[in-house]
Automatic annotation (TrEMBL):
Presence of keyword DNA damage: no
UniProt source species: Marivita geojedonensis
Keyword Zinc appears in the UniProt entry: no
Alphabetized UniProt keyword annotations: ATP-binding, Nucleotide-binding, Transport
Protein name stated in the entry: Multidrug ABC transporter ATP-binding protein
Length: 310
C-alpha cells in the first residue's frame, strides 16, 4: 500500500469555491514527489488536508494506514510539515522550541538527536538564542528542525526555499537526500522548477484544484519532451519558400532563424531530409543548434492547455 493514498478528495468552501476538485494520488514510501502549480492551484490546500489542518469536504486520505479524519493522531504522528509561513514564538529559545515540538508527539527526550538535527541545519551555535534574534533564513531552519524533531516518516515541504539564501537551499537538499536514503517519503511544493527537475523522483502538476498529471520524472521528460532544431540562415527571409511550406517550420528573429520541432521518442526525426530540402530551396545555412524542452516548458504547456480547455 502507498505511504499516502489520496482518493477523490474535494475541498469546497461556503461561498462555493472549490480548492480541490476530486484529487487522487498515491505517494510511495521513500520517494520524493515534487508538486508543481501556479499560485492558487491548490498545492497548500492539498498539503493542509493531508496533514489534518483542514478537513476534506469529501474523499479519503490515508497516511501509513491511518485515515486523517477518523484516526487523526495516528496519521499526524507520521507527518512532518515545513509550512510556507514562519509562525514561531518570538521569545522562546531555539532548542526549547525544537524540544517542545518533539514532546508534542509524545516522543521521549532525545537531545542527542536534536543536536544532530540542529548541527545539520547550522543552528547548533544558535541553540540558546531567542527566535526573535534570528534572521529570516535562520527562522526557516528552525521550522525544518521542528518538522524533523519527532522523526516523521512523511515530510511535507511547502515552498521551503522561497526567499531563502543559497546556503540554506543547499543544506536543505543535502538533508532531503539523507532523509530519502533513510526511507522518508518527501512531498515538495516549489516554484523553483529546476529544483524539482534536479531532485524529484516523480513530478505532479496541479492547477485549479485538479491534478493534471503525475509521472516519473525521466519518463515525463521523454514522453512530453520535444527538441527544437534552430537553423540560422546566412540571409534572412520574409517568408518560407513554397517547397518548405508544409514542413511545420516557423520563422524567428526577423527571418534569420527557422525553427523545427520534433519528438525525441520517434525513430526518425526527419532532420536530415529537412536540411537537404532547405538547401535545395536555395537557403544558405550559417549554423545549426538543438534545444531540449525543460520541465518548465512542459509545465507551462500543461497549464496553458487546461486554461484553453476551460
Amino acid at each position: 500500500m502507498p505511504m499516502v493514498r489520496i482518493s477523490n478528495v474535494r475541498k469546497a468552501y461556503k461561498d462555493g469555491f472549490e480548492a480541490l476538485k476530486g484529487a487522487s494520488l498515491d505517494i510511495h514510501e521513500g520517494e520524493i514527489l515534487a508538486l508543481l502549480g501556479p499560485n492558487g492551484a491548490g498545492k497548500t490546500t492539498l498539503i493542509s488536508t493531508i496533514c489534518g489542518i483542514t478537513q476534506p469536504t469529501s474523499g479519503t486520505i490515508i497516511v501509513g494506514g491511518h485515515d486523517v479524519v477518523t484516526d487523526y493522531r495516528g496519521a499526524r504522528s507520521l507527518v512532518g510539515l515545513v509550512p510556507q509561513e514562519i509562525n514561531l514564538e518570538p521569545f522562546e529559545r531555539v532548542m526549547n522550541t525544537v524540544r517542545f515540538s518533539r514532546g508534542l508527539f509524545g516522543k521521549p527526550k532525545d537531545d542527542a538527536l536534536l543536536e544532530r538535527i540542529l548541527r545539520e541545519l547550522s543552528l547548533w551555535d544558535k541553540r540558546d538564542n531567542r527566535i526573535m534574534e534570528l534572521s529570516g533564513g535562520m527562522k526557516r531552519r528552525v521550522l525544518i528542525a521542528k518538522a524533523l524533531a519527532h522523526e516523521p516518516r512523511v515530510l511535507f515541504l511547502d515552498e521551503p526555499t522561497a526567499g531563502v539564501d543559497v546556503e540554506l537551499r543547499r543544506d536543505m537538499w543535502e538533508i532531503v537526500a539523507g532523509l530519502k536514503e533513510a526511507g522518508v517519503t518527501i512531498i515538495l511544493t516549489t516554484h523553483y522548477i529546476e529544483e524539482a527537475e534536479a531532485i524529484a523522483d516523480r513530478i505532479g502538476v496541479i492547477n485549479k484544484g485538479e491534478i493534471l498529471l503525475v509521472e516519473e520524472k525521466t519518463a515525463l521528460m521523454t514522453r512530453l519532451g520535444q527538441k527544437e532544431l534552430r537553423i540560422e540562415l546566412h540571409d534572412p527571409v520574409d517568408a518560407l519558400p513554397e517547397a518548405l511550406a508544409d514542413r511545420g517550420l516557423r520563422i524567428e528573429e526577423d527571418g534569420q532563424v527557422l525553427v523545427y520541432c520534433y519528438d525525441t521518442a520517434q525513430d526518425r526525426t526527419g532532420i536530415a531530409t529537412l536540411i537537404r530540402e532547405v538547401s535545395e530551396a536555395g537557403l544558405v545555412l550559417r549554423d545549426l543548434q538543438t534545444r531540449q524542452n525543460s520541465l518548465e516548458d512542459i509545465f507551462v504547456g500543461l497549464v496553458s492547455k487546461q486554461e484553453d480547455a476551460a
